[in-house]
Design a protein that fits this description.
single chain, alpha+beta, two-stranded parallel sheet, two-stranded antiparallel sheet
Length: 85
């Protein structure tokens, strides 16, 4: 309940919706129509950012990642435990 997932992409919405359906994923998407925040600029894809409660980047991963492995799960669980200062 303390975790939110959001997909941000430059790809066409129809393509992203097909991908989500194919992989049986249900999460909000944001299709960028303009330049995004400077901190998220990259030339490599895919890239994933995990933000802490203050909106600061806590983890940045380039390339595909097994997000359901124990290391990633533990990192997210520990991050959720940290309350606002």
């Amino acid at each position: 309940e303390d975790v939110a997932f959001l997909l941000i992409t430059d790809e066409k919405e129809e393509k992203v919706l097909r991908f989500l359906e194919k992989h049986q994923l249900d999460l909000p998407i944001y299709v960028r129509g303009n330049k995004g925040p400077k901190m998220f600029k990259t030339k490599r894809l895919p890239i994933t950012y995990i933000l802490d409660r203050q909106g600061k980047i806590a983890m940045r991963r380039t390339g595909s990642t097994e997000w359901d492995d124990q290391v990633c799960e533990n990192f997210i669980r520990d991050l959720v435990k940290v309350k606002n200062p």
